[in-house]
Amino acid sequence: MCYPQVICIGEILFDCLADQLGKELNEVTSWTAYPGGAPANVACGLIKLGISAAFIGCIGDDKPGDELIDLLKKIGVNITGIQRHPTAKTRQVYVTRSLTGERQFAGFGNINTEEFADTQLNAEQLEESLLTHANYLVIGTLELAYPKSKKAIFKAIELAKKHQLNIFVDINWRPVFWLDLAKAKPLILQGLKEVDFIKCSQEEADWLFSTENPQKIAQKFPKVKGVLVTLGEKGCDYYIGKNRGTVEGFSVKVVDTTGAGDSFVAGFLSQCCQYQEKILSDPVIAKKAILYSNAVGALTTTKPGAIAAQPSKEQVETWLEQTINN
Length: 326
Fold this sequence. Notes:
By secondary structure, the protein is of the alpha/beta class.
């Protein structure tokens, strides 16, 4: 039996991307649905990069849920931990796009955010067996916004500590998911006390930590081994082990930025699985890992959709070799 190396827990959904660029929500006339959801994106990205991964989450007992399960199966993601809710629907999120492909989350149509199936993830039904042989648990923060799924996320953290997994958190701040914005920051900070790696954007770092400096962020959390502050197309500022650095991003023709950060995470975790503790002790390997992660993220922006645009390990390696040599 092949045990997953990385467990990703949280939301899986459909990103409904505006077909018309540069339009406000009420001006968009048509949408195209792409499978997404940050933890699911990471799981799929890892499989494409040659790393075994599982996804844990809750979806509706509906056609969109069936389609998402079929996709995960096709890609090769372990779906043992997926729960299905009999009445709540699989989430759809509407995403408008600027003329340059930058996205803006625009809401959930005519369904309230707390009514979707992902908010019903049940802590009592978590598949602990998935974590017994894994190396990493990946979580976002969106499911902390809802009472039931929040309980499941903290239970997963507890199980990860029990089985000595490294815990990786992508802040992934999306105010549109939260009913009570005042609760968000303290809840997220509470969860970060037990984690090993933190990834956030510059904006998220400013909002949550009042600093963009990854070393200063790491100093706030004694257990943290690494902090990655992504700079969009400018690359990534990092503090891994005791190694601080910045790796510039790659210039590509951007079609859609949806899922680029999740692909970056998949790229980084693939390097963690490959190099293990060396990523913390060897500054050359740490820098190489960030370079690789930047490449995975950049390539994802060259096509529409999050999962659909993710590159394979071979594509990343070939593109990196050609880009660096040129």
